[in-house]
Write a structure and sequence with these properties.
The complex is a heterodimer. Chain A is of the alpha/beta class. Chain A is built from 15 helices and 13 strands. In chain B, strands 10, 11, 12, 13, 14, 15, 16, 17 and 18 form a nine-stranded antiparallel beta sheet that branches. In chain B, strands 1, 2, 6, 7, 8, 9 and 19 form a seven-stranded mixed beta sheet that branches. The chains are: A alpha/beta, B alpha+beta. At the A-B interface, helix 6, helix 14 and helix 15 of A face helix 16 and helix 19 of B.
């Protein structure tokens, strides 16, 4: 449908043995044919499809070999994008791939936008919406678990679970229908009690899926982890330790980290999105005040807080203020600098006294217990990605919520003694929302959204 | 044209072939809209005949009858004249699915319809057999008959019912025949095939008629009509009749045993009959085989009319041989000595594949050739009549160069019926049910006039008298509804006492009467004593206000669904579209779309074999075309 031909590196740009350049579109084969010199001397357009050929990509400008390659051409419609596709296996690294892409562009191809191959696959009817969304997630997945999640969605696991719920709902409607359409026959009456029971069961399934969205979000977006503490208690050092590299600036002067810094780490398959913050203290410095305010604002959205105390100093007003701010959150209390003389006393904070993990970042002591504790907190009771259906897409979650709401309306209407045909309107609404997840319900505004996001046409 | 001694018998605007329920509505609509019309039928005595059940209406079907009436058709008026019992079905459910059903006197129905037709100024009626549609340059120009009489015409509407190559089956016995002992029409099918029209073969059946004096009705459950008789036609305010009861009895293990022992004599199983029958109206042998665990099935005994002793045995149709029929019927309690007057039979007939039609019921391949009723694969008198009136109206609109009248799925059951037939086709005789309508909370019987009378008036079929009556009703609903909205009820002693009596929670603050009426326990009529300035309004108006208020929340929800539906429904697909060019479509979808050629994306999405992914592809293709056109301009 798209008439132009796009090209992009299909492999991650960086150090690797080989790189793959993918070309898709009406002129994919002819463009590559123009610049590919096969060992057997034949043009790519005359060679067999789906066979790999050895040869060279020639730079037409200077009539010189650009790289030594293996090339395979695939004819539409049985390709990922349903268009003609050529894949060029070249040498890895940035140089070779860039050079080939430049040559392709000079011959009339266009550099693909991010995810554009997937867009084409979707727009050409090769994959459904959830699958397209999964591919996009796959491309940007940060850990193996979020990768698995996207793979499952691509396989259609979520679609299957939703299909299952849809079938229950359909069963309900068909029973209602029989009652309405054949009132004179002695078909078993569809009792309101029955609808109630089935609706409640379905609500449970919705709840499970919606709850999984939180886990899904963790896998996809990472556990938002906030490092809090007074200035110079070792927040940035801890972050660096977790990151295994010196990214955040660490100095002896209190108040160096004036803004928040975000980094991703992979902790045993759980992605942590670590946010380092400015040290919290009462200050008159306007710039620093903003940093402190930002740090406190972040508390609200954090999934986990790492609160650090300095063992060598007594508890101060700032410590107590932070403790109060974070009392409703999931917190790991860390006592740093335990290699120094311990002055701190948790006398009035029995809970912290019991839970606090003693560490020394400088002395590299007790640090592995932080990792263990995080794993324990978040992997215990968390869903196993291999077995359960997990919702990881916000659009899906919102539709599930709407769908659930419609079923709640059914129960409400039963309370208000409304009749069968009214209840069915809500059941139908619920079905429609579910259909929107899998793409079975086509809404014109969804199409508008797709047009907006996928930038098709001219 | 075949070699035949012909003469030009007349020149008409519209020729209607067949005088059943579809034919009568089609012919009346065309004639009343000012076109010179002739209706050709095999037998004048079978005009508006009811060859099967002696009732009109029922779930979904009652809605259609009211819609026909709202558009200016005749069926409801004839039903009101012929009614001998009335029942409102589904009263335990909400008003949206309340369905009227009348037991009718078949003879009275025939006579009243025939009188109306005979009295119609523009309409001629003649007994003959149409044998050929004359098509020149892809357009209808005439209809030829068995006698050689040739009628020149602008349009033809085919309403051939079950007559085309009709074949009767009773066990091993089978012969060519139409319904009710009439002749079949054996020649017209060939003419249709010659014109490239694809035919299918369907079957249907009817139970036996039994002599009333030969059965013991005391052994059966009596089924009385409702205390309140509601007319079908919006033109009638009330009907006063002495109602006649029906009776309920059951089959038993013995009945089923006889059926099982004789299944080899069932023509379907013996492989003699090829036609496909309706699932929703199965023969008793089908029921026994399919629901083998059910120990008994219901059978209703219904009078065929007031001055006849023939009783119709509803629910017990069969195509087993006559001797088995007698044995089976006699196993039923109360029917031990029954005498069959007309045996049950199955009838097989030619119909067309309705996906060849446009939504105005004109066939895509031949201009001005319309089809309505059972020939389109439907079943039932009401479904036939609903198509008949639409075909009649559209034949005229087309001649007048006007836009067709297309009822969409959110406007009428008739719209659902026609859309289903022409978009999805059907593999069995299509029967209307409320479940086929997605938006049935707004497609109610009670508001059929509010939905459609304006349309019928615009088309030119609704008389001024009907239109005035409709406007009056509409206004009086609006006025009273507004008053009720403004009327404030105070929590005084009188109100408190009334609410207590009605078993509903007391008022704490002044509340509008409108909100009070939303409570399920309170009816409009209940509030009369606390509403002294209430005007005298008609019962139908009171009822309408009550429904609109009580179900407002749900009706609003339904309107939102309809809004969504309309957005897809009115995204038109240009007639020039070439599906072969659209790459993303799957092959099956491409073929189906090329065949059906839907008008809109909404219609495309309902074609079986066209997946949502295909529709997405189509949406994107159309959008791209639109943008390309824009940039080119």
């Amino acid at each position: 449908m798209n008439t132009d031909t796009i090209a992009a590196s299909a492999t991650y740009p960086g150090m690797s043995g080989i790189g793959i350049v993918r070309v898709s579109g009406k002129n994919a084969i002819s463009i590559v044919s123009d610049i590919f010199k096969s060992k057997n001397g034949k043009k790519l357009v005359d060679l067999k499809r789906r066979m790999m050929y050895y040869g060279w990509i020639m730079d037409p400008e200077v009539d010189r070999i650009a790289d030594e390659v293996l090339v395979v051409a695939m004819k539409e419609p049985n390709t990922f994008t349903k268009e003609d596709i050529v894949e060029i296996n070249c040498h890895g690294g940035i140089v070779s791939v860039e050079m080939i892409l430049n040559i392709l562009v000079s011959k009339g191809a266009r550099l693909a936008e991010r995810g554009e191959f997937t867009k084409r696959a979707f727009l050409n009817g090769r994959i459904d919406l959830t699958q397209a969304e999964a591919v996009m997630d796959l491309v940007s997945s940060k850990t193996k678990n979020s990768f698995n999640l996207s793979m499952h969605q691509l396989e259609g696991r979520l679609s299957k679970e939703i299909k299952c719920i849809r079938e229950s709902l359909m069963g309900l409607t068909s029973q209602i229908e029989v009652n309405i359409d054949f009132p004179e026959y002695d078909e078993e009456e569809m009792t309101i009690e029955n609808i109630k029971n089935i609706s409640r069961e379905i609500l449970k399934r919705f709840d499970k899926l919606i709850k999984s969205a939180d886990t899904g979000k963790i896998y996809k977006e990472g556990i938002k982890t906030l490092i809090l503490g007074k200035p110079n208690v070792g927040k940035s050092s801890l972050m660096n330790y977790l990151l295994n590299e010196n990214r955040a600036i660490v100095t002896e002067i209190p108040g160096t980290t004036r803004d928040t810094i975000e980094e991703f780490v992979n902790l045993a398959g759980v992605p942590l999105k670590i946010i380092d913050t400015a040290g919290i203290r009462y200050t008159d410095d306007e710039v620093e005040k903003i940093g402190v305010k930002k740090a406190l604002d972040k508390i609200e959205e954090a999934d986990l807080i790492l609160m650090i105390f300095d063992a060598s100093k007594a508890l101060e007003g700032e410590d107590i203020m932070i403790i109060k701010e974070i009392q409703d959150k999931k917190v790991l209390y860390l006592l740093n600098k335990t290699d120094l003389h311990e002055k701190i006393d948790f006398e009035n904070f029995q809970k912290i006294k019991e839970e606090v993990i003693k560490i020394s970042i400088k002395g590299n002591k007790g640090l592995e217990s932080i990792e263990n504790k995080i794993k324990e907190e978040f992997l215990k009771g968390a869903l196993d990605v291999d077995d359960d259906v997990i919702v990881s897409n916000l659009r899906h979650k919102n539709l599930l919520l709407k769908s659930k709401e419609s079923i709640e309306d059914v129960l409400k209407s039963i309370e208000n003694s409304l009749t069968l045909e009214c209840l069915e309107v809500d059941i139908m609404n619920s079905l429609e929302f579910l259909g929107e997840i899998t793409g079975e319900t086509i809404r014109d505004d969804l199409m508008d959204k797709i047009f907006a996001e996928f930038c098709i046409g001219k | 044209m075949k070699e035949l001694k012909q003469f030009i018998a007349g020149k008409y605007d519209v020729v209607v072939i067949g005088a059943g329920h579809a034919g009568c509505e089609a012919a009346l609509a065309a004639a009343r809209m000012g076109k010179k019309t002739i209706m050709i039928t095999l037998s004048l005595d079978s005009l508006a005949m009811m060859p099967c059940n002696p009732n009109i209406g029922g779930t979904g079907k009652g809605h259609i009858v009211k819609e026909i009436d709202a558009l200016g058709g005749e069926m409801a008026i004839a039903t009101d004249k012929a009614m001998i019992q009335f029942k409102l079905l589904n009263t335990s459910k909400g008003p949206a699915v309340h369905s009227s059903r009348a037991q009718t006197d078949k003879r009275i129905y025939h006579v009243s319809m025939k009188q109306v037709i005979e009295d119609e100024y523009n309409l001629d009626l003649i007994q003959n057999e149409a044998i050929e549609i004359d098509v020149v340059d892809g357009k209808v120009v005439g209809v030829n008959t068995k006698s050689g009489a040739y009628y020149e015409t602008e349009s033809a509407i085919l309403c051939t019912g079950t007559y085309l190559k009709g074949k009767i089956y009773m066990g091993e016995v089978s012969y060519e025949g139409g319904p009710g002992g009439l002749f079949p029409a054996n020649e017209l099918s060939a003419s249709l095939i010659e014109n490239g029209i694809i035919l299918k073969r369907f079957k249907t059946g009817t139970p036996a008629r039994v002599h009333k004096d030969s059965i013991d009705l005391n052994k059966m459950e009596i089924q009385e009509g409702d205390a309140e008789v509601i007319p079908f036609s919006f033109m009638n305010d009330k009907i006063e009749i002495d109602q006649v009861p029906c009776y309920l009895c059951y089959t038993n293990e013995k009945t089923h045993e006889i059926i099982r022992d004789n299944l080899s004599r069932y023509p379907m199983y013996a492989g003699k009959m090829e036609g496909v029958g309706p699932r929703y109206c199965p023969s008793m042998e089908d029921k026994v085989v399919r629901f083998s665990d059910k120990p008994k099935h219901q059978v209703f005994v219904e009078p065929e009319g007031l001055d006849t002793k023939e009783m119709y045995i509803q629910g017990f149709s069969t195509s087993l041989p006559e001797e088995i029929q007698i044995a089976m019927y006699r196993t039923i309690e109360g029917m031990e000595n029954c005498k069959i007057m007309r045996p049950a039979y199955a009838i097989e007939y030619d119909c067309i594949d309705p996906t060849q039609l446009k939504r105005n019921l004109e066939i895509k391949s031949i201009e001005n050739l319309f089809f309505a009723g059972q020939i389109n694969g439907s079943s039932g008198y009401e479904e036939a009549a609903g198509q008949g009136i639409v075909a009649g109206i559209n034949a005229v609109l087309k001649q007048n160069g006007k836009e067709p009248m297309i009822l969409d799925r959110s406007e009428a059951y008739i719209g659902v019926l026609i859309d289903d037939l022409v978009t999805k086709g059907t593999n069995e005789p299509y029967r209307m049910m409320t479940s086929r309508a997605e938006y049935r909370l707004v497609l109610r019987q009670d508001n059929a006039d509010l939905r459609l009378t304006e349309k019928g008036y615009k088309a030119g079929l609704v008389t001024l008298e009907r239109y005035k009556k409709f406007i009056e009703k509409k206004n009086s609903i609006d006025v009273e509804k507004t008053r009720v909205m403004k009327k404030i009820v105070n929590p005084n002693a009188q109100v408190r006492a009334l609410l207590e009596k009605l078993n509903t929670v007391p008022l704490k603050i002044p509340t509008s009467m409108y909100d009070l009426l939303k409570r399920p326990e309170i009816r409009y009529d209940d509030l009369r004593e606390i509403d002294p300035d209430r005007p005298e309004v008609d019962k139908v108006v009171r009822r309408q206000i009550e429904i609109q208020i009580k179900y407002e929340g749900y009706i609003k929800k339904q309107f939102r669904q309809i809004e969504q539906f309309k957005r897809m429904e009115y995204k038109n697909i240009p007639e020039s579209i070439e599906y072969e060019e659209i790459k993303g479509l799957r092959i099956e979808a491409r073929q189906k779309l090329s065949k059906i050629r839907p008008d809109s994306l909404g219609q495309a999405s309902r074609i079986s074999g066209v997946s949502p992914a295909d529709v997405n592809v189509l949406v994107i293709y159309l959008e791209q075309q639109k943008r390309m056109k824009k940039t080119n301009e």
